[in-house]
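Example record

The entry below shows one chain as it appears in the dataset: sequence first, then structure tokens.
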Amino acid sequence: MIDENLKGKAGKALSGAEKVRSFQRKIYLKAKQEKEFRFYIMYDKIYLHHFLFEAWKRVKANKGVPGYDKVTFSEIEKYGVENYLKELAEELQTETYKPQPVLRVYVPKANGKMRPLGIPTIKDRIVQMSCKMAIEPVFEADFEDCSFGFRPKRSAKQAITEIKSNLKRGKTKVYDADLSGFFDNIPHDKLLILLEERISDKRVMNLIKKWLKCSIFEDNKLHKSSKGTPQGGVISPLLANIYLNLIDKAVTRKDGHFHKHGISLIRYADDFILMGNKLPDEALAYLGKMLEKMELDINVEKTKQIDAVKEAFDFLGFSFHYDRGIFGGKGRYWNVIPSKKSELKIRENLRQAFRKNRHQNNESFVRILNPKIRGWLNYFSISGISYPSKAKGNLRRYLDESLYRFYQHKSQRKCKLYCRRAFV
């Protein structure tokens, strides 16, 4: 009887997910076929049960900490997910839903500085996810192929593959751009204009405006938000892609300043590079004017223009080198490996794991370490593109030494688990 109930629930969840995907396919095709069409009935999809339930599943899968109201996933489950989503649907349907303040936290960056993140409540994350599922296909139909970040069926690995392909074609002049505080500086008025080009449903627009204007809770005070979208919000990556699609279109436009010089763009969220056989000053000046109109600033200290044949460059954690052939051969090849920062970052993550889990037994500790190691290795292993063998060797030696010291501290006796190499 229990198995049948579980089977029934799984079938119901799958049915809901299929309904969402079916809607998304139809909306995508409509948007793709009619570039000027504005979608006017979208809000009623956001509070449908199968949309909210699928949004709940995705938000929960992303894990994350509680927001301003301190409500956790376990508390919602204890209350009853069905009841919780039913009440949330009623709030949306009656338009009484109001987002709560966004909790501002800071996480360390690789350069030692702190990155600000905005954490909405779980309730707001669910609604944002449901809204994102409803409207994302509309804008996916408009996005360019040069954009790889936070999009369905797009990944960092595809971006790295495209960069190496460009290098092989001789596009070795690289403009590595860095935007200063992009997520915190997106102007609301300009972003809303872009949204309204495709969405005419006023209730959806009002919902997004509420999230953009949401107060920020920091230092035990509420601060008003006049620009930007919280980096950490569920819908923020989609809004970022919508805004930066202006740059994508400018670069890929066939009669534009960039296309006539054979310049390509690879963008992953707010990180992007321009690549070409040459990068004329007029093209870079045009980019600067565009960013100025968009009220975005280039970080002069981090932005650089290089010749990849003479100088290596990093992007998305990978480092691109034009190296000589193996065993001193005369040929040259494009070597794509994990960057030094990436190697240091995984070591620091593992170092923190060692410090925080000294009380764990051997088997539990292995289960904590393995996902971190495998995740790093999987990210940097791209068949035919990346060659991380040296980085793997460095990581192996670091683990050997760290695990030996770790187990020596735990026990005076020789550890059988360490000898069996049970950590890989």
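Notes for this example: The chain is about 50% helix and 15% strand. Confidence is low (pLDDT under 50) at residues 1-13.
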